[in-house]
């Protein structure tokens, strides 16, 4: 089973609980009423995650004030190391509209299940790294899943996809 | 003794040029070496750069070394069925007459065991080992954490 065989469930049916990078409790119902853009990552990730975060920052900049209506979230797949404080420091390097979510492993497991996303901890050189779903999930304001921006997809297609959830 | 001193001087003279300059060894040209700032020294750093093989024989990048990381290595980001993983790679092909790159989302140098946090504006030496051309040292410029490409006048994305 991979993240692409199944689609994320509608946000209104999601039931995970996490904590945002300001230390506030988070429930998916907070996203309802506005279009939502979510991706999974972690701060120890040197390549894919900063690249995706800077892409997202560029898209938000291109969309301008229109993008203020979006919920944008990074869900950490490494809650062990990504505390809210660490996420806050990390995200201060990117668009301020991006919210970091972390919490207990059980909360993350539930979030991944709701998104049909996968993550896996791999031991490496006395440390570990994470494999994780790399796409950016897009949801309409009513919480219905719309599309994914794939990591290797031509980035020019991203903005039209985001515009679709903004209208 | 004199010989040793001379050798040392040569090493220093051979120290890398600025990140935006092109350094050469044999048929290999390396340029636009950059990295991203890190939060602390616990998180791995990354290195991206561009390599051109101007010769008629295939070569390969087989190693990276730097004094600022205990465990520098070559990795490749692979996205398969939407899942990103980052396997080690033993070598990156640099075919004759072509340009290969360590670039976001593909091959990259991964710097584990940093001796210090990488700060924007810092630079550090990185020695690349090529199968045929041998070793060459470049200066890597540390850009912001959100950087996407080298900040050179003629940088390629």
TrEMBL record, chain A:
TM segment ranges: none
Annotated residues for binding of Cu cation: 45, 49, 132
Domain Thioredoxin: 7-167
GO molecular function: metal ion binding
Gene3D superfamilies reported in the protein's UniProt record: Glutaredoxin
InterPro entries listed in its UniProt record: SCO1/SenC, Thioredoxin-like_sf, Thioredoxin_domain
Record keyword Cell membrane present: no
Disulfide cysteine pairs (residue numbers): 45-49
Keyword Metal-binding annotated: yes
Pfam families listed in its UniProt record: SCO1-SenC
Keyword set, alphabetical order: Copper, Disulfide bond, Metal-binding
Protein family (similarity comment): Belongs to the SCO1/2 family.
Name this protein carries in UniProt: SCO family protein
Native source species: Gemmobacter lutimaris
Lineage summary: Bacteria, Pseudomonadati, Pseudomonadota, Alphaproteobacteria, Rhodobacterales
Automatic annotation (TrEMBL), chain B:
InterPro entries in the record: LpqE-like (IPR007410), Lxx211020-like (IPR058248), PCuAC_sf (IPR036182)
Keywords assigned: Signal
UniProt signal peptide: 1-19
Pfam families linked: PCuAC
Protein's UniProt keywords contain Signal: yes
Protein name: Copper chaperone PCu(A)C
Gene3D superfamilies for this protein: PCu(A)C copper chaperone
SUPFAM superfamilies tied to this protein: DR1885-like metal-binding protein
Keyword hit for Signal: yes
């Amino acid at each position: 089973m991979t993240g692409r065989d199944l689609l994320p469930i509608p946000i209104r049916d999601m039931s995970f609980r996490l904590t945002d990078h300001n230390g506030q409790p988070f429930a998916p119902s907070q996203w309802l009423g506005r279009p939502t853009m979510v991706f999974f990552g972690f701060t120890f990730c040197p390549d894919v995650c900063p690249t995706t975060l800077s892409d997202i920052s560029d898209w938000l900049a291109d969309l301008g004030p229109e993008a203020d209506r979006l919920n944008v979230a990074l869900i950490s797949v490494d809650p062990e190391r990504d505390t809210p404080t660490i996420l806050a420091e990390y995200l201060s390097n990117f668009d301020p509209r991006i919210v970091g979510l972390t919490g207990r492993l059980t909360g993350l497991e539930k979030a991944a299940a709701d998104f049909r996303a996968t993550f896996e901890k791999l031991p490496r050189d006395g440390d570990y790294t994470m494999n994780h779903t790399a796409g950016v999930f897009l949801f309409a304001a009513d919480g219905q899943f719309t599309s994914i921006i794939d990591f290797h997809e031509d980035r020019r297609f991203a903005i039209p996809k985001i515009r679709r959830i903004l209208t | 003794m004199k010989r040793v001193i001379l050798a040392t001087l040569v090493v220093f003279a051979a120290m890398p040029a600025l990140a935006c300059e092109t350094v050469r060894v044999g048929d290999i040209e390396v340029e636009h070496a950059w990295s991203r700032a890190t939060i602390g020294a616990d998180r791995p750093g990354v290195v991206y750069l561009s390599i051109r093989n101007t010769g008629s024989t295939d070569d390969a990048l087989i190693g990276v070394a730097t004094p600022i990381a205990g465990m520098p290595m070559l990795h490749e980001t692979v996205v398969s069925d939407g899942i990103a993983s980052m396997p080690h790679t033993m070598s990156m092909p640099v075919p004759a007459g072509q340009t290969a790159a360590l670039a976001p989302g593909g091959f990259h140098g991964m710097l584990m065991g940093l001796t210090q946090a990488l700060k924007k504006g810092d630079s550090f030496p990185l020695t690349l080992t090529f199968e045929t051309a041998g070793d060459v040292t470049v200066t890597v410029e540390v850009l912001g954490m959100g950087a996407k490409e080298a900040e050179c006048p003629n940088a390629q994305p």
